[in-house]
Every structure is written in structure tokens, then in C-alpha cells.
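INTERNAL AUDIT FORM
Audit reference: QA-55
Scope: verify that the stored structure record matches its stored sequence.
Auditor: D.O.
Record contents follow.
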Amino acid sequence: MVSTFLANAINYMDRLLLFPLVGGASVAIYYSATLFGKIISMGITPINSVMLSYFSKMKTFRQKNFWLVLGASFALGAVGYGACILISRPVLMLLYPQLAEQAMQYIFVTTATAMLSMVVSVLNPIILRFCNTNWQIGINGANVLLYTVLSLLLLKQYGLMGFCVGALLAVCAKLLLMVGIYCSI
């Protein structure tokens, strides 16, 4: 329960952190720039449930399969990144015409964050099934801490782009931590 709370806190933390520090207009721009990431995460959640049920029947998971899943996830993420970048301007112009140009400044970073979050989400059922469950609290707790610290420090230094980069760095750290944990078993 704690792990799930920490993992889901990131979904809303951005708005809770940004609003008092930079105001509603920046939150609206950030939200429109992260639109594709939110849609992708909604689509990945059911897939993770299916993967977890499949993995629950397995006794072991070979490292070769782990690297195949990781590689396939990165490949899918790269294709998804390209597709999101291609359609982002027309979609944002349609949905948020008054914010589209400002949001486009951040779309490359926020979409990269979303794609790496997708890779993390695909790895999560493997970590849940084949690693000690206590790792989940550690992984998600470290992620929330890093996300908060990096995003706020970089927001102060570089504005909204710094916040976006902080979120990207936090998800990179989470990915590396998950890979490290799996490789240690």
C-alpha cells in the first residue's frame, strides 16, 4: 500500500509543487506538455496487470529475458517518442491552442520522461515478482525524494524547463535502480 501510494504520488506531485511556486499559468503549460505522457501511462497500467499475472505463474525469470524485455521496452519507447513528437504540435494546437506554443518548448523533455516512465512501468512487474517486495518501498521512496529535490532545485535555477529536467533525471535514476536491483538477485 505504501509503495503504491508513493508511486502514484508522482502523478499529482508536479501540480502540487508547481502551483504555489510558479502559479496556475505554468501549471497549465506543464500539464499540456505532459499530456502524452499521461495518456501513455493510462495505457500501460492494464498491460502491467496482465504481465504481473503472467509472471506470478513463473518460478524464475532468466536474465536474458530481462534484457530482452528491457530492450523491447526501449525500442517501443523510441518509436513512441518519435510518434509523440510528430503529433504533439497538431494535437496541442487542437486541444490547447492558447498554450500550444509555450508547451512545445517542454515537449521533448516531458515526452522523454514519459517514455522512460513507460520502460520503468514495464520492468515493475518483474521487480515485483522476482525481487523482495521491500524493494518497492525503497524504489518508490527514493523516486519521490529524488523527484522532489531535483525538480525543485532545477526549477529554482532554470524555471519550468529545470523542473522538467528534474523529473527526467528522477525517472532515469529509478530505471537504473531497478536494473541494478534485478541484476543483484
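Auditor finding: record pair retrieved intact. The radius of gyration is 17 Å.
Action required: none
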